[in-house]
Amino acid sequence: MKLYCLSGHPTLPCNVLKFKSTTIMLDCGLDMTSTLNFLPLPLVQSPRLSNLPGWSLKDGSVFLDKELKECSGHVFVDSVPEFCLPETELIDLSTVDVILISNYHCMMALPYITEHTGFTGTVYATEPTVQIGRLLMEELVNFIERVPKAQSASLWKNKDVQRLLPSPLKDAVEVTTWRRCYTMQEVNSALSKIQLVGYSQKIELFGAVQVTPLSSGYALGSSNWIIQSHYEKVSYVSGSSLLTTHPQPMDQASLKNSDVLLLTGLTQIPTANPDGMVGEFCSNLALTVRNGGNVLVPCYPSGVIYDLLECLYQYIDSAGLSSIPFYFISPVANSSLEFSQIFAEWLCHNKQSKVYLPEPPFPHAELIQTNKLKHYPSIHGDFSNDFRQPCVVFTGHPSLRCGDVVHFMELWGKSSLNTVIFTEPDFSYLEALAPYQPLAMKCVYCPIDTRLNFIQVSKLLKEVQPLHVVCPEQYTQPPPAQSHRMDLMIDCQPPAMSYRRAEVLALPFKRRYEKIEIMPEPPPRPTQPTSSKKRKRVSEDVPDCKVLKPLLSGSIPVEQFVQTLEKHGFSDIKVEDTAKGHIVLLQEAETLIQLEEDSTHIICDNDETLRVRLRDLVLKFLQKF
Amino acid sequence: PRCTFWTLVPAADGHQEWDSNSRLARSRGVAFSYLAVGGKDRRTSVLIMDPECSRLLPALCAVLADPRQPVADDTCLEKLLDWFKTVTETESSLQLLQDHPCLVELLSHVLKPQDVSPRVLSFALRLAGAFAAQEDCFQYLQQGDLLLGLFGEAGALGWSAWSIPSVRSGWIQGLCALAHHPSALHFLADSGAVDTVFSLQGDPSLFVASAASQLLVYILALSMQGRDAGSPIPEVAAWPVCAQKIVSHVQESLHSTAAPQVTQALNVLTTTFGRCRSPWMEVLWGQLSPLVASLLKRDPIPAAHSLVDLLLSVARSPVLSSAACGPWEILAQTLHRLSPTQAGPLALGTLKLQRCPQELRTQAFGILLQPLACILKATAQAPGPPGLLDGTAGGSMTVDTLLSSKSACVGLLCQTLAHLEELQTLPQCPSPWPQEPLLDAAVIILRLCDGSADPSSSGAGRLCGTLAGCIRVQRAALDFLGTLSQGMSPQESMLQVFAILLKNLESPESSPTVLKKAFQATLRWLQSSVKTSGCSDLSPDALLFLGELFPVLQKRLCSPCWEVRDSALEFLTHLSQHWGGQADFREELQSSEVPMLACQLLQDPESYVRASAVAATGQLFSRGLQATPTSSENLQAQQGLLMDLMYILSTDSEGFPRRAVLQVFTQWLRDGHADVARDTEWFVTTVLQAVSRDLDWEVRVQGLELVQVFLTQTLGRFRPRCPYAVTLPEATSPTPHPEFLRTLCRLPLFEFVFRALFDCDRPVAQKACDLLLFLRDETAPSSGPQETRDGPNSASVEVALQRWQEGEQGQPLGDLEPEAMLALLRSLDLEGLQGKLAKSSDHIEKSPQSLLQDMLATVGMLEENEADCY
To answer: Which Pfam families does the record match to this protein (chain B) (predicted)?
Structure first.
């Protein structure tokens, strides 16, 4: 059993597990911290940003001044922001059979994997994960596409050039593999490969292993996964939480008796307690607003924002803030607020029971109803009419590199009355603020990360008693900034195995038993071996046995088939009934399709592309097995 | 009429006094007759055997003896027993038994235990013990072999009910009661009871086991009685048989390898040495101390807690501590041998001793300081002062090992900090007191807890991991830090302390309880900074600190957690109380938004916070520290606050804010606050109107307090201002100034006070009564015959009062002329009323007659009462 580690980010994991004859990808997180090296994309022309001086080398050469700009001593790439993808070279991703997604934050790299690697498998995820993941992707694509940038910088990526750059650009890893954001089409295509699953549902993979999602308590629909065969059990723990926030509580019991427990997605701020941070958030918000200042909260459109709104709902009256408008600006704001209310079965017990009253599970419905919370797709349009100060604005993107937040930073940054409160733990707030310096606005850092901390992990491990623990290397030593905090690392026996990006781990795991079924008759030998170049899983175990062409079954309803043809641009279609079936005539293309009980023929005159097109349309009506 | 209180509302104990909850009195349906002018309380609550009780007693005994009529309530029996004990204290038990043969019959009946409930058995055993405490009565009961039947081997021990703990407990308590005279001693020796007591020491019921040990102590003391005077005390071998038996049992137990037995022996000795001061104890200790010392050689030391108790008991005993075989050496050994956690209480106890060798004190203090010394060492702070770490290297090692386990470490640290805190406030506090290192230790512990310590060693890293975020230790350390403010500290330490306090106040990780402690410690340190700076102004360091403190306070006042807002407001109140008059402080405070935020919290949804906000703004305003500094706005704002508080007083749904408002108002009135002084009569009238409708009795009491302040002030105005002024005797005579009386009658003051006099809540009525007495003494002290004639209005007022007394509160008092008021004051039996109110609300129901009647009624009408309950 091997583990291929494609991401070095402990909370945005992407690992591939080879277990028995299956290849399973566990999450495909996208490391977006790379965008911090880029200049923000202003929604409204910003003279300050566009007049930043170009950066020149120490020797005075200025060949990079188009690509690199300098702001308050920091150097930024002036280009469309790019993301650091998971490793694609370590393993042939076309051999991946399934991808298991644990939460909506951990699927942001999905389009890169499913659309550009030859991936042909299935993706499994829960419904809220898919829906909210779609919102996150849609928002990201929207943020980037609505500010078209002609320039795409690449000179600086040259290894010889990069060496000369100042930090952090100099130290950025794998810059050549950084990619621009995907398109909405790619997103749709990627999401269409997802099959929805429910908690505790058992999914058989090729009869070899069974995978099961379990509630992880971190976000709506977030899951941990159990991957087990008859004799082995691997648990994959991704972002999980034991706090009572809105999602269903974490299922710990089912993780017991694992041979291997792969542990990722712990809190990124182990020293901050979410309760204290929420308190800090509220106090600072109230103080700013009382002084007549505005509060900006850079955030994702889903997740912690629900809890923050709930907390504010209880707080604003006591703090005398009832008259202060709260704005939530995101292209997906509306959908996010509404989705949260309809996923009742994925919510914690308290919220679920509200549905039967019936009441909306989240109190933000009431905030909207009473006009205390207003949401807009962007700063353009209605928002500019309704905008009233002082106010509180929730908007993305938390990296401060794109989205409406860029505008508010430019607008409010000059006044010390205003405050920006960082609640998302994914980005270093100092780096996020770098291109806005000098900044008069107050900055408050209240990262709210509800994922497991090390105390909870050690309790969890004591409880579930896995034989082996595997985790990112960051978790096996104290954080660099607090090297003395021996309590801020995983402490278990035997010591956890650690991995880092681009590493292949042989898991300490011997398979002792295998269940096989012996049939009385030998299987028929395949007569037509295919010449596929792809390495298929069967070939690993039985080298001399070649892959069968998939068998087809089903019948083709003629009327629907004709409609499909018409939808795909074929006109002038005639259908003739025959004794054995039907003949579909495409007169213009001089092509006929014979549909009979036991065979289907496409007869066309030397037009291979047309034939393949028609074949694919026919195959759509049939089931493969 | 029969009072069924005991049966319907069984009280937890029979001695429940007024519990400040008026509903209790109401629920009991107790009606008072406050205005019983000339009336007489027919029932007395003196607990004696009166004819009525004598009459009821046979019936009650019959009921108790009758197994078909179960006694439903244990508390009745307890009360009955208490009563009998009181009776036997003042009367002859023998006489009592002879006068009431039913009692002996009851005891004899119990000898056939199959018929009696365990409750009654236990009661009878204790009752017999109480009677037999008098020697003549003992003989009387012995004649009929009644005592042997109850307490002997053929008695209770053989009953099947013996398996019930309450019966065993009753047996022991009965024996405890009777062990008061030599005859009893013989009885105990002959009946074999002592052996039973030995075995009961290990009883599964802790109450029984503990009582058994107590009994042994009694018996030992009884058998040694009379051996103290004059002649020297012989060796144990020459002691009475009974005493010898007990001593050898204790010796055996001390030899035992089973820890529980050692514990029992140690407990018996602890009680013995703690109770009496007779010289024979010196002999006993001389005999047993080698055995106790030998316990220290065992590993682990058995019953360490009990050993600590024993040694402290010995050390406290004046007889033993000055004896030749004094406890000091063994104490020193024990301190050395016990683990730090076990040694802590012993060290503290040693240091608290009035007399103790200096060496031992030094050792004990060293032990107490060990954990902190260890922390200082681990975090590579400057090593402690000489003596702190010297000679305890071995000890520190064990502390080190202890610190590796989280729970042990936390427990030990909290214990140590609490002990040191206690010690510092005592006169026995060791000198020199290592103020600086202790301050360093407290600060470093707090820094380890908040993760800001910069550990240079692996040990410190481990400590950091263990203590990070530990609220218990944080609280203990902050308390200790606060106490340390009493000592003299160098300036650097002060800065360090202010820095760590600020960190704790500021950190979002601080829990509300930690924050509260941090606020308390901050106040103490600010006060001490005044002390060190020599004048009443804040030191420059403290001022700098205040500059940073107010933004933090601002943030805390906005906290979503109400506990935090509440403690922040309380802190603000204290701050302005202490330093509200100082220019620097005022400047810092007024340049912040704290006063404005405090004002806003008057509307807080949480009532506690509103109450604290009322107190804080009241304090700020009386110091002129309100949010708006300009003078014209100032006036307006202040008026605004007065109206805001009036609004809270008349509309707030919770009692706390309303009480707080009245406290502020009373204070304002007392201080002659400008707004109040401008139109005091309007102010008092408005307040009383609101208070008279208030449902909260504390508000009404506070309202009476305000009236009292007003009366005193008004009276003062019509009196010569200077008490030392040379004036003619007429001028100082208590004849009231007519204008004073007119003022009183103009306000709704009398109506308020008289209504309060009939208040269903006793404290209100008491306060009103006191107030009227004060007023009467001030206005109409002597009532000559010509003055007792009532004025024209007095009669109608009395009618109104009569109605109020009868519960018809609707009728107003009507206008009152000064003369009528004076006449009324004279006619009321205020002293009598005061006496009646001073008694607890259930004094009538506490009488023995009532108890006996109730018990009879319960049994006789059990079914009816059950129906009543539903």
So the answer is: HEAT
Of B461, B466, B604, the CB nearest to A484: B461
CA distance B603 to chain A (A): 8
Shortest Cα distance from B466 to chain A (angstroms)? 7
- Comparing B592 with B854, the larger pLDDT belongs to B592
Flag whether residue B560 sits within 8 Å of chain A, measured between CB atoms: yes
* Beta-carbon-side half-sphere exposure of residue A418 (alpha carbons within 13 Å): 21
Q: Which residues of B144-158 are buried (b: 16+ CB within 10 A; e: fewer)?
A: eebbbbbbbeebbee
| Per-residue pLDDT tens over the stretch B361-420 | 999 999 999 888 888 888 765 555 555 544 444 455 566 666 768 888 899 999 999 999
Q: For A75, list phi and psi in degrees, rounded to 5.
A: -110, 135
Instruction: Please tell me which of the candidates A290, A291, A486 has its beta carbon nearest to residue B462.
Output: A486
- The DSSP-derived string for B767-810 is HHHHHHHHHHHHH-----GGG-S--TTHHHHHHHHHHHHTT---
pLDDT in tens, A511-521: 778 877 787 77
Q: Is A272 on the interface with B (CB under 8 A)?
A: yes
Beginning with the edge strand found earlier in the chain, give each strand of the sheet holding A15-19 in spatial order: A194-197, A122-126, A98-100, A22-26, A15-19, A2-5, A503-506
The per-residue pLDDT for B493 is 86
- Check whether B784 has a pLDDT greater than 70: no
Q: Are A602 and A611 in contact (CB under 8 A)?
A: yes
Indicate left, alpha or beta for A465 from its phi (over 0: left) and psi (-120 to 50: alpha): left
Asked if the Cβ–Cβ distance from B555 to A484 is below 8 Å, we say no
pLDDT in tens, B841-864: 666 666 777 888 878 877 664 344
Q: Which of B509, B555, B604 sits opposite A287 (nearest CB)?
A: B555
- CB contacts, 8 Å: B603 with chain A: 320
Chain B residues with CB-CB distance to A287 below 8 A:
554-555, 558, 593
* pTM of structure: 0.78
| Chain B residue with Cα closest to A320 | B600
Rounded (10°) angle between helices B393-403 and B406-424: 130
Joined tokens for residue B686: 């408005």
C-alpha distance from residue B805 to each of A549, B765, B799 (Å): 104, 12, 10
- Determine which of B474, B504, B555, B558 to mutate to test the interface with A (most A C-beta atoms within 10 Å): B558
Confidence label for B25 from pLDDT (cuts 50, 70 and 90): very low
Sheet holding A468-472, edge to edge: A203-205, A209-215, A223-228, A233-237, A260-263, A468-472, A497-499
Q: What 3-state DSSP class applies to A24?
A: strand
B106 burial (CB, 10 Å; 0-12 / 13-18 / 19+) is buried
Which ipTM did the prediction report? 0.72
Residue ranges of chain B assigned to CATH 1.25.10.10: 47-223
Nearest CA in chain B to A284: B555
Q: What does the alpha-carbon distance between residue B444 and residue B454 come to, in Å, rounded to a whole number?
A: 10
A111-125 pLDDT, tens digit per residue, is 999 998 999 999 999
Average pLDDT score over residue span A161-184? 88
Interchain CB distance below 8 Å, A484 and B597: no
A236 vs A224: CA distance, rounded Å: 6
Cβ contact A284–B555 (<8 Å): yes
Minimal-distance CA residue of chain A relative to B455? A484
More reliable by pLDDT, A283 or B534: A283
Decide if pLDDT at B148 tops 50.
Answer: yes
- Does residue A65 sit at the B interface (CB-CB below 8 Å)? no
Pairing type for strands A260-263 and A468-472 reads parallel
Class of domain B47-223: mainly alpha
Contacts of A310 in chain B (CB under 8 A): none
Q: Do A282 and B558 touch (CB under 8 A)?
A: yes
A272 to chain B: which residues are within 8 Å by CB? 508-509
